[in-house]
Amino acid sequence: MLDIKIRKARVGDVEPILELVNSLATDQVMLPRSPASVVEKVRDFLVAEVDGVFAGCGALAIIWTDIGEVRSIAVAPEFQKLGLGRRMADELLAEAETLGLARVMAFTYVTGFFEKLGFSVVDHASLPHKVFNDCLNCPKFNKCDEVAVLKVLREDEDSPERGPLSLPLAGVPLPRIR
Ligand SMILES: CC(C)(COP(=O)(O)OP(=O)(O)OC[C@H]1O[C@@H](n2cnc3c(N)ncnc32)[C@H](O)[C@@H]1OP(=O)(O)O)[C@@H](O)C(=O)NCCC(=O)NCCS
């Protein structure tokens, strides 16, 4: 039986994460990541291991106080369809719940996978503007062909349909710039 382990990423995982994500990106199935972006965000990542061998990765980015994003979820071809993608996604969603996030979204080409995890396809325009911050660095900026998917973890009674703007940080004073 295979020994499958899902764990938080360490800096030593940066190289295999980059190799996997960027090799899949050359096949046009996901977007590439720069070394700096993975190093800086390594605390966002989970890693899957099979019999002690690196087999996949996935990250949860916090976008705003009410929404997170699953990013760079990938399983090496030889380990796909073994349930690793689901196990990593379930852990990322559990982390989102622990953090108190009400919604989690992703941009993807594999809507079928995300639909199996309870996500639904949504219009890009229904997402908060902040989600698109990273799009500025994307090679497909202005010609995005990824599908937006969203999973609601908690319905907030006061704002069932918030539309394109995220919750403001009410009552938080902004820093004064002199
Ligand atoms: C998408 C990916 C992460 C799925 O990982 P995986 O470990 O192979 O998936 P799992 O075995 O956990 O599958 C979970 C469920 O999703 C389904 N699924 C997996 N890949 C799918 C796909 N491409 N299309 C439709 N459904 C898919 C599985 O059949 C399974 O359904 P089941 O539970 O009813 O049997 C993996 O195929 C991958 O790395 N693909 C290339 C990179 C990519 O596209 N990443 C997403 C970028 S956002």
Description of the molecule:
This protein is of the alpha+beta class. It has a single domain (4-152), classed as Gcn5-related N-acetyltransferase (GNAT) (Aminopeptidase), CATH 3.40.630. The protein is 23% helix and 26% strand. It has helices at 14-26, 35-40, 84-99, 111-116, and strands at residues 4-8, 45-50, 53-64, 67-75, 103-108, 120-122, 147-152. The chain has a 7-stranded mixed sheet with strand order 1-2-3-4-5-7-6, sandwiched between helices. A hairpin with a 2-residue loop joins strand 2 and strand 3. The N and C termini lie far apart (64 Å). Bound molecules: coenzyme A. Coenzyme A (COA) binds next to strand 4, helix 3, strand 5 and helix 4.
Tell me which ligands are bound: coenzyme A
Question: What's the number of extended β-strand segments?
Answer: 7
Sheet with the most strands: spatial strand order: 1-2-3-4-5-7-6
Q: Round the Cα radius of gyration to an integer and report it.
A: 17 Å
At CATH level 3, the topology is Aminopeptidase
The CATH homologous superfamily is named Gcn5-related N-acetyltransferase (GNAT)
Spans of at least 5 consecutive residues with low confidence: none
CATH architecture grouping? 3-Layer(aba) Sandwich
What characteristic shape results from the CA principal axes? globular
Please identify the structural class as seen in this structure: alpha+beta
- The separation of the N and C termini measures 64 Å
Question: Main β-sheet: number of strands, strand sense, barrel status?
Answer: 7 strands, mixed
Question: What is the H/E string?
Answer: EHHEEEHEHEE
CATH class: Alpha Beta
Mean pLDDT across every amino acid position: 90
Number of domains: 1
Helix tally equals 4
> Hey, roughly how much beta strand do the residues contain?
25-35%
Helix content: 10-25%
